[in-house]
Amino acid sequence: MALQTKVEYNYDEEKWVFKPIGEIDIYTSNEFRDNVLKAYEKKNADLVIDGEHLEYIDSTGLGALIGLLKIMQDTPYKIYIENIKPNIRKLFDITKLDSLFIFRGESDEQ
To answer: SUPFAM superfamilies in the record, alphabetically (predicted)?
Structure first.
């Protein structure tokens, strides 16, 4: 399945919002990362990954997210993840990556 990513800047929250539609996998993870980086380089800000229409993410997709974290590690900006399906959330839990990202709308949001 292909990937489309809607990108918008939320001026009220001062955050980039990315809405991936489809799958972030070995075939699409570089495209997703490049779209996010292009926006982030245009204006440094927090990133929100809205997973409402994200159907699947594999290890290369997770790797793309980790790569974004590494780029942002020495900045005050954070990556938020929201509206993800339970099977995708479980993947973050199993890989212990749930501690690296902020999940919005959940009790563990910081």
So the answer is: SpoIIaa-like
Task: Please write the tens of the pLDDT for every residue from 14-45.
Answer: 999 999 999 999 999 999 999 999 999 999 99
Q: Hey, which bits of 11-73 come out as E strands?
A: 15-24, 46-50, 54-57
Q: Report whether 101 contacts 66 (CB < 8 A).
A: no
Which CATH number does the domain 3-103 belong to among 3.40.50.880, 2.60.40.10, 2.40.50.140, 3.30.750.24?
Answer: 3.30.750.24
Whether 47 contacts 5, CB under 8 Å:
no
| Ramachandran area for residue 105 (φ above 0: left; ψ -120 to 50: alpha; else beta) | left
What is the reported pTM?
A: 0.90
